[in-house]
Amino acid sequence: MLDGLRGFAKSWPGKILGAFLLVGVAGFGINNVIVDLGSNTLARVGDEEINSREFLRAYQSQASRIAQQIGSVPTASQAEALGIPTAVLLGLSEGATLDSLASQFNLGVSDAKLAELLREDPSFHGTLGTFEPGIFTQVLQSSGWTEAEYFDARGDEARRDQLTDSLFATTKMPSVATGLINDYATATRTMDYIILSETSIETPAAPTDEELAAYLAEHQSEFRTQETRTVQLLDLSLASLAATKEVAEDEIVAEYERTKGSLTTPERRALEQVTLPTPELLVQFESGLAAGTDFGTLIAEAGLTPANLGTLAQADITDTRLANAAFGLEEGGFAIIDGIGGKRAIHVVEIEATREPTLEEARDDIVERLSLAQARTEINDVLDQIEELRAAFQPIAQIAERFGLPVYEADVSANGNELSVLPNLAPEDYSRVAQAIFAAEQDRLIPSIPLSGNAHIWFDLEAVSEARDQTLEEVRDVVETAIIEERTNNALLAKSEEIVARLEAGETLADVGFELSAFPQLSAPFTRFGSEDGLVDGTLAAAAFAGGPGHVGSVVNETGEVVVFQVVDTTAPSTPLEATALDSLNTEARAGLYSEFVAALRDDAGLRINQQAINQLLVQNYGQ
C-alpha cells in the first residue's frame, strides 16, 4: 500500500493534489511558518520588512548609548532585561508603518531634495561648516553604510516627514486646555508667613541613659560598623614600573636631538570669514583689498559679523582653497576666495609661529617616554618573577622591595573607595579589586588581579574587621543629638499645628508672631513652583495653593524649616501663555497624536516578529 502511495505521489495527479493540500493547509495559518518570515527578516509590518542589517545597526546605536552609562556593552540577556531589543523593534516598526502608508499614497522624494538633505547633514560638514565629499565617504565607511543605503534611509525619512507634516503640522492644543495650563502655571499668590525656630518652643529635656539605650536598640541598624579588610597592595603596571627607572642625562639629550623635530608645534592661525553673497558686497571688499583698507573697517561699514573658524594649523583645514589662502597671508591680512555659495573673505586674525621646545621644556616628556620604553621591555619578565615568588608564598613587602615598587596599605570596605591610594588604578576598577579582596581568605595563596594594559595587582590580606553593632558608649553623643533633634522637630510641628488652629479661630498672624518674637514676613508674588527670589520653594508654594484666599497652613519646607503661613492675595493670569511655552505645548500635543496614529496603523497592519532569529542574531554579536 505504501509503495502504491509513493508511486501516486510521484505522478502528475499526485503532485497536483499535493499542491492543493499545501494551499489548503496554508489557509489555516501555516503560512506564518512557511512563507511569512524569511531567515533574514526579523519582523514585518504589513508588507514592509525589517531585516537583520537595519535591526543590528539600530541596536548597536542604542547599545552604545547604554554602554556609555553602565561602562560596558550589554550582553544579549542584559539587553533583554533593559528592554533594548523591544525598543529598537518598536522604533523600526514605527518607520516601517509610515513607509507602508507612504507607499499607498505614492509619495516620493526628488534627487534635488536628497541632495539638499545631504548638504545640510552636519555629520558631513568640514571646517567651514559646509559639505565635504571626503568626510561623507569616511563617515559612511566607518558606520558600515553604503551610499545606496544612506540615500534610501534619507528618502524614507523625507517621505515620513511629508506624511507627518501634512497630517499634524497645524495641530494645536485646544484653547480651553491652554487656558487651564496657563492658569495652573502662571497664577500667583502672596502670603504672610513666620518661620518657627528653637526659640519658639521650650528646650527639650536631655534624654536619660534608659532613653538612650532604648533609642539605640530601636535604631541599631543605623549604628553598625562596616566590614573592612586591611590589605597590603602591590601594583605592577607600565606606569609603576617606569617610575622605578632612572634615565641617564646623555640618553635624554640624545632623545631630544632625535625627536625635537616631532616636538615642534606647527604654525597655527586664528581665522575668520564673511560670505559676500551680493555683487555690491563683493565690489566693496575687492575695492577695499586693492586700497589696503583694514578688514575690521570693511565689515563695520558693511554691517557684517564674521564667523570664527578657530585657531588652526594648515593640516587641520580640509578645504584646500582656504588653507592655501589663509597660510599665504600676513597677520591682519585678508583674501577673497571662492566658496560653495559664492565669494567669501578670509581674514587672518593672529599667527602663532612655529615653536621648538628647549631641552628643559621637553625633559619631563622625554624621561617619561624613555622610562615607559624600558618598562615595556621588562614588564613581562617582572610579571613572571613576581608570580613565581607569590607561588612560593613570599609576602608583598619583600617582593616590592626586590623590584623597587611601592607597597600601599588600606582598610578596604565593600565599595572599594579606599583603593584610591593606588595612583595607577582607574576608579572603574575599584569595585572589581574590592570584590577580589572580599572573596579572599587569610593564609591562602591569593592570585593576582589582571587589569587592562598588562597591569596586575597583588595583595596580602592582613586582617578582617567584621561588621558589628556599635555600643552606646561609642555612639552616645550621636544618639543624644538624634533624640534632641527628634524632640525639637516634634515640638515645632506641634507648635505649628497649634498656631494654625488659632489662626483658623480668628486670631491674626501678627499677634501670634508677636508672642513668639517671630514677626510675619510678606512674600513676593509666587507661582505653584515657588518665587523667583527662592524664598518660597516648591513645597511651600504647593501648600499655599492647596486652599483659596485666606488659606492658612503649616509645612516643612525644602530646607527643613517649619513655616506657618496665611494667603493674603490671589491673582489670576492676565496675559496668555508666552509663544515659546505655547509652541512647546503644541509640539507635545502633536507628538501624542502622532504616537497614537502610528500605533493604530501598526495594529491594523499587524506586527509579526521572528523572535528566534532576533535571539540568534544578538547572541552571535553580543554573547549570551
Helix content: 40-55%
**What is the alpha-carbon Rg in Å?**
38 Å
* Overall average residue pLDDT: 85
Poorly predicted runs of 5 or more residues = 1-36
Derived structural class: alpha+beta
Molecular structure report:
- InterPro entries: PPIase_PpiC, PpiD_chaperone, Trigger_fact/SurA_dom_sf.
- Helices cover 53% and strands 16% of the residues.
- The protein has 624 residues and is α+β, with helices and mostly antiparallel strands.
- The strands form four sheets. It has a four-stranded antiparallel beta sheet with strand order 12-3-14-13. Strands 9-4-11-10 form a four-stranded antiparallel beta sheet.
- Helix 12 packs across helix 16.
Describe the secondary structure blueprint for this structure.
Layout: H1 2-10, H2 12-36, E1 41-45, E2 48-51, H3 52-70, H4 76-82, H5 84-104, H6 111-120, H7 133-143, H8 147-168, H9 175-186, E3 188-196, H10 209-218, E4 228-236, H11 238-242, H12 249-263, E5 268-276, H13 279-291, H14 295-302, E6 307-313, H15 320-326, E7 334-339, E8 342-352, H16 359-391, H17 396-403, E9 407-412, H18 430-439, E10 449-451, E11 455-465, H19 472-504, H20 509-516, E12 521-522, H21 538-544, E13 552-556, E14 562-571, H22 579-605, E15 607-609, H23 611-622
Antiparallel strand pairs: 1-2, 1-15, 3-12, 3-14, 4-9, 4-11, 5-6, 5-8, 7-8, 10-11, 13-14
Helix pairs in contact: 3-5, 5-8, 5-22, 10-19, 12-16
